[in-house]
Design brief:
Elements (H helix, E strand, L loop, with lengths): L1 H28 L3 E6 L6 H11 L4 E7 L4 H9 L2 E6 L11 H8 L9 E5 L16 E7 L6 H4 L1 H5 L3 E5 L11 H11 L4 E4 L8 H11 L3
Parallel strand pairs: 1-4, 1-5, 2-3, 2-4, 5-6, 6-7
Helix pairs in contact: 2-3
Bound molecules: guanosine-5'-diphosphate and magnesium ion (MG).
Magnesium ion binds next to α2.
Length: 219
Amino acid sequence: MQEKEIKVMKKILATNDKMAMELREILKKKGILFINLMSSPGSGKTSLLESTAKNYNGKLAVIEGDIETTLDAQRIANAGMISYQINTGPFGGDCHLESGWIKSALEEIDLNDIDILFVENIGNLVCPAEFDVGAHFNVVLLSTTEGEDKPLKYPLAFQNSSVCIITKTDLMSYLDLNLKQLKDNIKKVNPKMKILELSSKDGKGMENWFKFLTENKLS
Ligand SMILES: Nc1nc2c(ncn2[C@@H]2O[C@H](COP(=O)(O)OP(=O)(O)O)[C@@H](O)[C@H]2O)c(=O)[nH]1
Ligand SMILES: [Mg+2]
C-alpha cells in the first residue's frame, strides 16, 4: 500500500515539475520575471506586495493563493496591482499551489502588459516548498517575530529558495531576536542564500528589494 502511495506521489510531482519547467520557459520568452513568495501566514507577503505596487515602477501582476477568501487579492488590487485569486478550499483545501493551477490562472491574465509576475503562495512554511510553480526565483519571507530557529526547523523552504527576506525589521527593538543567529541559521541551511532585511511599514530596506527586481527583470 505504502509503495503504491509513493508511486502516485512521485507521478504527481513529476507532472507538476514538467509543467513548471514549461511555464518558466514560456514566461522567460515573453520577458516576464516570475517570482514565487512563500512564508508562514502573517509574515508580510501581502504587505510587501502592497508596498511594491505603490512604490516600484513596473508593470506588475500577482496570482494570490489562499484556501478561502479573496481578501488578499482585493488588498493588492486596491494598491494598484493586477491580481488574480486562486482558492483551493472548494477543491479540498490544499495548502500549496501547483503549476497546473498557475497555468490556468495565466489563461485569464493578459500577459502582454506585465513585466513582473508574483505568486503569493498559500501561507505555510512547509507544503509550498515541495511544489515547483515554475518561478524564476523562489523567495522565502521570515518575519522578525518568528524566531531564529525557523530555518533549521523548516529547512526545505529555505533550501528551495534563492532569496530570503527578513520582514518587520521595525519591530526588532521590541523583540529579543538575535539577528546574527537568524542569518547564520539561514546560511547553515542554504549557504548561497541572498538575504534582504526590510520593513513594509516604515519602508526601510525596500530599496534593496526593488534593486533585486530591477536587476533581474527580463525586459
Ligand atoms: N510592524 C510591521 N507589521 C507588518 C509588516 N508587514 C506586515 N505587517 C503586519 O503583519 C500582519 C500580516 O501581514 P500580511 O502582509 O497580511 O502577511 P501575509 O499573511 O504573509 O500576507 C498585518 O497585520 C500587517 O500589517 C512590517 O513590516 N512591520
Ligand atoms: Mg497574504
